[in-house]
Design goal:
This protein has 566 residues and is of the alpha+beta class. Helices cover 31% and strands 23% of the residues.
Length: 566
């Protein structure tokens, strides 16, 4: 009896100690926050920049994701990844991150669905058609909006989450979309929650593209920046308040005063996106049958040469190209329009090694030129962002361009130049083109100080001004801007807009947030051939082994009990 009471007392003490330890562990856990990620690529770990942005949120961010209902396996995987990411966001900002998943086709009323589709499209979400299999084995088409709408205070901004490159398999597109989820969400959250809005400017005064011709990219840039337009007018320091300056297809020469303003802006750490056409070609004249390609100097060639690049007076032709409509009918007969390859419009496959070009659709170039890197400044790093296919060539100008070229079959032996650079990024400390030169006559409110070496900065030079231009369609209600990258002849949408947005975000990024686009998750796809060859073997193994294990465990327990209680 006494021994039993002692055992009871010992058990009660052990129970109290165990409860105390559990409470102590819970208390310590409430004070110390940590999450464990056992994956090799740290797939479920947020970056330090993301965690910092989430912890600093002081207002509610509400996210509506339009991926719900019956979806194909790939989109279900995308939805699961989005939910896991948003749950990670909530772990660091539980009070300020809220989300819901919505099925846009859930309502049985077709008019309500149609109104919702129009609303989502107008706000910027891009729809896509997917094939859905029913439980009875039938299949049907369904409209899906693979994106989200982020609401902060009174602002609603759309985020498209599907990377849809027609040149890649669907599994690869979905995989790349999952890789970029963190960047797509957190970059928009940072922009919406920031108190200070960065400013970028489109330069004017040299025949650059007008507000309508860059209207679509301007609308998207307005989600991140305050976008202005204006001419420097030779005013010293007029660009200093802008984080980046965009020079979009100038056709008039730059004055020495404007060159000096741009140069000193760069010397102070300013960033510039140069979109230049060293060769002028008239598309209107071309559709009459033929035109001429002429060299178009802009008086900034020496400036770019000093920074480290030279735009060659060439036109690039590429076998990997887009198409244009050409009248194949006889003269005097009814027009017969056919889409024919046009080698002057290369289609560029972006690389995967840089955050700017990673996971992008093909990019369309119109009458582009090749770029050479020059100089030996060790403080300037040069990175090729866009280049032609392995089968390309250059045409020196002046040259005649004729639509009859579409009737000629491209000989691979003639296209013997590979990977001609079309866009180059320069990073580092640049030398001023006005070093040891007299200062031009400019407007200045105070003394002028010529900086001969820049602060660390970046610039991107693209030898195609049309890469940023959207089509403008005249209508009774005024000009209508087509989406940048959309081709009206083939109804394809190229990656021009995403490339320009990434380029400007990279130029202005001071936190390194865009490096999230460079994160890579290893694809672990099943080998379909092995599945077909070995499916029966693995079905037998997966069926038989669990049964054998259960039988063996039961027999072992039976033998053990017999020996113990015999």
């Amino acid at each position: 009896m006494v021994k039993r009471k002692q055992l009871k007392r010992i058990h009660i003490v052990q129970l109290i100690i165990t409860l105390f330890i559990i409470l102590l562990i819970n208390f310590i856990s409430s004070l110390v926050f940590h999450r464990f990620d056992l994956t090799t690529e740290k797939r479920y770990s947020l970056s330090e920049e993301t965690r910092s942005i989430l912890k600093e949120l002081d207002e509610l961010v509400y996210i509506r994701v339009y991926l719900e209902g019956d979806l194909p396996v790939g989109f279900t995987r995308l939805k699961t990844s989005i939910r896991e990411l948003l749950d990670e966001f909530r772990a660091y900002a539980p009070q300020n991150i809220q989300y819901e998943f919505i099925d846009p086709v859930e309502d049985p009323d077709p008019q309500i669905r149609r109104n919702l589709f129009n609303q989502l499209y107008n706000i910027g979400l891009q729809p896509t058609n997917v094939k859905v299999r029913g439980k009875d084995g039938s299949s049907s088409q369904k409209i899906v909006f693979p994106g989200a709408v982020i609401s902060f205070e009174e602002a609603d901004v759309a985020v498209n989450l599907l990377k849809n490159n027609p040149g890649l398999p669907g599994e690869v597109n979905l995989h790349q979309s999952i890789q970029s989820l963190e960047y797509e969400f957190i970059s928009m959250i940072r922009t919406l929650s920031s108190d200070n809005i960065a400013k970028v400017a489109f330069l004017e005064g040299h025949g650059e593209l007008d507000a309508y011709q860059v209207g679509d990219i301007t609308k998207d840039l307005a989600n991140f920046y305050q976008v202005d337009r204006g001419a420097p007018g030779g005013r010293y320091g007029s660009l200093d308040n802008y984080q980046a300056v965009i020079i979009a297809k100038p056709v008039k020469t730059f004055s020495e005063a404007d060159k000096f303003v741009i140069d000193q802006y760069i010397m102070k750490g300013g960033k510039v996106l140069w979109l230049l056409d060293p060769v002028q070609v008239s598309m209107d004249s071309l559709f009459m049958g033929m035109t001429f390609a002429l060299y178009q100097p802009l008086n900034i060639e020496d400036q770019l040469f000093r920074y480290g690049v030279r735009l060659n007076p060439h036109l690039v032709k590429d076998i990997q190209c887009h198409v244009i409509p050409v009248n194949k009918g006889l003269i005097g007969a009814q027009a017969q329009w056919e889409l024919s390859p046009w080698y002057y419009f290369p289609l560029i496959s972006p690389g995967i090694k840089h955050p700017i070009t990673r996971s992008l659709n093909m990019i369309k170039i119109e009458f582009g030129s090749d770029i050479d890197t020059v100089g030996e400044n060790p403080e300037v790093k040069k990175t090729v962002l866009l280049s032609t296919s392995p089968y390309s060539r250059v045409v020196a100008v002046p040259a005649e361009i004729n639509l009859r070229e579409t009737e000629q079959q491209a000989a691979q032996s003639d296209y013997n130049r590979a990977h001609l650079p079309l866009a180059i990024m320069l990073e580092g400390r640049f030398e001023s083109v006005f070093s040891n030169r007299s200062v031009p006559d400019i407007q200045a409110e105070g003394p002028i100080q010529v900086d001969e070496v820049s602060q660390p900065t970046r610039m991107i030079i693209i030898a195609d001004g049309d890469i940023i231009r959207n089509e403008v369609i005249d209508s009774p209600n005024g000009p209508v801007m087509a989406p940048l990258g959309f081709d009206k002849y083939t109804s394809q949408t190229f990656g021009n807009k995403e490339f320009i947005l990434n380029a400007i975000n990279y130029l202005t990024d001071e936190t390194g947030l865009i490096s999230l686009r460079g994160r890579e998750f290893r694809m672990r796809l099943l080998d379909r051939q092995r599945i077909q060859e070995e499916s029966e073997k693995w079905k037998v193994i997966n069926t038989a082994i669990p049964i054998l294990l259960v039988i063996s465990f039961g027999a072992g327990v039976s033998v053990y009990r017999r020996r113990k209680y015999r």
